[in-house]
Amino acid sequence: MRSAGFNGRLTCTLLKPMAALYSEIILDHFRHPRNYGSLPTPDISYEDFNPLCGDRIRIELKLKHRVVEDARFRGDGCAISIAAASLLTELIVGTDVGAVEAISDSWLISALESDIKPSRVQCALLPLEALRAGLRTHKLHELDA
User: Fold this and answer.
1) What's 23-144's CATH class?
2) Residue 36 neighbours by CB under 8 Å, 6+ apart
3) Where are the domains of the chain?
4) What confidence tens digit (pLDDT) does each residue in 82-105 have?
5) Beta strand 56-64 with 67-76: parallel, antiparallel or unpaired?
6) Interior CA angle at 85 toward 115 and 36, to 5°?
7) Distance between CA atoms of residues 6 and 56, nearest Å
8) Can you give the pTM of this predicted structure?
9) Cβ-count burial 89-110 (b if 16+ within 10 Å, e if not)
10) In 3D, which of 90, 63, 60 has the Cα closest to residue 75?
11) Is the separation of the CB atoms in 75 and 58 below 8 Å?
């Protein structure tokens, strides 16, 4: 597929710098995001926003016996935030909520296998922040019940 107004050679030339900036993991998850979409009846749904760049990510989870049975994400963001959301949702399916709560910033950054510049770390962590906030909100609702 070609971009409007560009020939194939120019489009290829424009994509080469992107490949030099990002790991294969980021490029693959950005170009082919896993778990993109919505769940019909999520147990957890939380959207977070990065005011510095405008990225917005919503994480949705379906739980069964405190295990993530299914995960989806939606949002608009840069390659790093979309790839991080895709990778994160892929890795947490089948995982106990306690282990999901223990995911560290450094673990997610490492899983992206890329040299994330300090100015872009918030992009990579936005999906994890949405996940954490959703889990906290869910836990509070469980305590109120």
Assistant:
1) alpha beta
2) 72, 73, 74, 86
3) 23-144
4) 999 999 999 999 999 999 999 999
5) antiparallel
6) 140
7) 29
8) 0.85
9) bebbbeeebeebeebeeeebbe
10) 60
11) yes
